[in-house]
Amino acid sequence: MIWVDTIVQGILLGGLYALFAAGLSLVFGIMRLVNLAHGDLIVLGAFLILVAATALGLHPFLAVLIAAPVMFVLGWALQTWVLNRVLGDDILPPLLVTFGLSVVIQNALLEGFSADSQKLSAGGIEAASLALGPVTVGVMPLLTLVSAVAVIFGLNQLFYRTALGRAFRATSDDAVTAGLMGIRPQNVFAIATGIAMVVATIAALYLGIRANFDPSVGPARLIYAFEAVIIGGLGSLWGTLAGGIVIGVAQALGAAINPEWQILAGHIAFVVILLLRPRGLFPRAND
Questions:
Q1: Alpha-carbon distance 210 to 282, whole Å?
Q2: What SS3 state is found at 30?
Q3: Is the pLDDT of residue 284 over 80?
Q4: Is the pLDDT of residue 52 over 90?
Q5: How far apart are alpha carbons 78 and 193 in whole angstroms?
Q6: Phi, psi values for residue 278, rounded to 5°
Q7: Which of 41, 51, 117, 153 has its CA 20 to 30 A from that of 160?
Q8: For the purposes of burial, counting CB atoms within 10 Å of the CB of 165, is it exposed (0-12), middle (13-18) or buried (19 or more)?
Q9: CB-based contacts of 266: which residues, under 8 Å, 6+ apart?
Q10: How many whole angstroms separate alpha carbon 183 and alpha carbon 175?
Q11: Who's near 184: CB < 8 A, 6+ residues apart?
Q12: Is the dihedral of CA 59, 195, 278, 282 positive or negative?
């Protein structure tokens, strides 16, 4: 039963990693953009929730309703006025720009909030637990996994069952032809990035409640997100959930063997799957 509990805890942890990765996967699937500032934008979302909760005396689950629209506008503006200018066949300019953005965000947060660790307080729900048969799980980790499934289900519904989703798919397949059909790719990209930032804000909510955060933790969140996207298969949202769970289970098993192996075990799982399935578990396309 110890190993069953370990695997269950790993699956729940994987939900958090899937939330980290969902926005990154969405942006890459539509515009083939690897956003190196994604982890720092998650941390920025956590600080926005903290500011809203502190200034207005709100519970973090209510403060996120204020932070999410702000992050959407920020993502839309960032894509419209910065990233759209460097998108093209050469992947190097977007990488350099997002790397620079990462540095700017980290230093701005450091200037505004110092290097002190912060945490979002959600009250009694943080310590609450629930018995599921022979296994006891925390309410917050379970809620995180449920939210990850709900977010990815919602993104899939948006992607495959709405007019905006058809515009996303058409622009992803061939931006030039989509433009000839009346779709403005740059607007589509801006909306996609805005939605990705809303997802990042949801991830920030659970990050801030479940662990301490400071301006420097963004790159580690990016690594987990990137590994989950690669394991799942580039552009596959459900694959991203699977990738997050793989990393979470690997870390939980590693920690059960030796607490010092937790982070290393997740990276080893990533390398092994990359060697066995270079295109990931559920690649979306064959190109």
A1: 29
A2: helix
A3: no
A4: yes
A5: 8
A6: -55, -25
A7: 41
A8: middle
A9: 224, 227, 247, 248, 250, 251, 254
A10: 9
A11: none
A12: positive
31 Cβ neighbours under 8 A, 6+ residues apart: 87, 171, 172, 189, 192
pLDDT in the model for residue 32:
84
Which tens digit of pLDDT belongs to each residue from 85-139?
998 878 889 999 999 999 999 999 999 999 999 999 988 888 898 888 788 889 9
Under DSSP, is residue 138 helix (H, G, I), strand (E, B) or coil? strand
Q: State the Cα–Cα distance between residues 39 and 17, nearest whole angstrom.
A: 11
Q: Are 248 and 10 in contact, with CB atoms under 8 Å apart?
A: yes
Note the pLDDT of residue 286: 46
**Both tokens of residue 242?**
């699977």
**DSSP per-residue letters across 244-255:** HHHHHHHHHHHH
Residue 89 and residue 176: Cα distance in Å, rounded?
13
DSSP state of 124: G
Q: What is the pTM of this model?
A: 0.93
Per-residue model confidence as pLDDT tens digits over 2-23: 888 899 999 999 999 999 999 9
118 DSSP 8-state letter: B
Residue 285 has pLDDT above 60, yes or no: no
Exposed e or buried b per residue across 255-274, where buried means at least 16 C-beta atoms within 10 angstroms of its C-beta: bbeeeebbbebbbebbeebe
Element (H, E) at 74: helix 60-81
